[in-house]
Every structure is written in structure tokens, then in C-alpha cells.
From TrEMBL:
This is DUF485 domain-containing protein. InterPro entries: DUF485. Keywords: Membrane, Transmembrane, Transmembrane helix. Pfam families: DUF485 (PF04341). It comes from Neobacillus cucumis. The chain crosses the membrane at residues 33-51, 63-83.
Length: 108
């Protein structure tokens, strides 16, 4: 039986699995990995309307007639793409850990 088959079985005891130290460790590692990215994203996301609404910092021209507001806004798209790429690469490692946890705790 492969890990993919075991993962799809409805007879898997998920409540037992989530109580294992391996699973709790995986959840903690995922949370520790994602938290700084989430904090940075929300900070960058909410700073844009604050800067545009209450200051004139971003109103100066950056490139031709384009102001820094547009540069900042477009950089948000780049940031999301970069964060997504980083997470997708890290998720591959998390998937390997999940397979090991399932193999150790379910496929005994």
C-alpha cells in the first residue's frame, strides 16, 4: 500500500494521528515558517493605504509621471509571487514529512 493510497483511505484514525508528537512538531514548524511571512504581508498591505491616505510620501514621481504609490502597489504583486514560490518550495519538504508521519503512525 502506498502513502498516497493510505492518505485517501477513510479508515485513517485522524484523531490519533493529530495527537502524535511528530504531527504536533510538523504543525509547529509550519506555523513558525509561515508566521513571519503573514506578518510582513499584512504590514505591507495595510501600510499602503495609510501612507496614501495620511501622508504625501508616495505622491512624488518615481518613473516619469508614475508616482511611488504605483511602484509600491505593483511591488505587492511581486511580493505575493515571491512568497508563494518560497512556500511552494518549502511545502515539498513538509509533504515529505507528512509521508514519513503517515508511514510511521498509520502504515505500521
Amino acid at each position: 500500500m502506498t502513502n498516497q493510497v493510505a492518505r485517501g483511505k477513510s479508515t485513517m484514525d485522524y484523531e490519533k494521528l493529530v495527537q502524535t508528537e511528530d504531527f504536533k512538531g510538523l504543525v509547529k514548524r509550519k506555523k513558525n515558517f509561515a508566521t513571519p511571512f503573514v506578518i510582513f504581508f499584512f504590514a505591507a498591505y495595510f501600510i499602503l493605504p495609510l501612507l496614501t491616505g495620511y501622508t504625501k510620501i508616495l505622491e512624488t514621481p518615481a518613473i516619469g509621471a508614475m508616482t511611488w504609490t504605483w511602484v509600491y502597489a505593483f511591488s505587492m504583486f511581486v511580493m505575493v509571487w515571491v512568497f508563494t514560490s518560497i512556500y511552494m518550495n518549502k511545502a515539498k519538504h513538509f509533504d515529505v514529512e507528512v509521508d514519513k508521519i503517515i508511514e510511521k503512525n498509520v502504515l505500521k
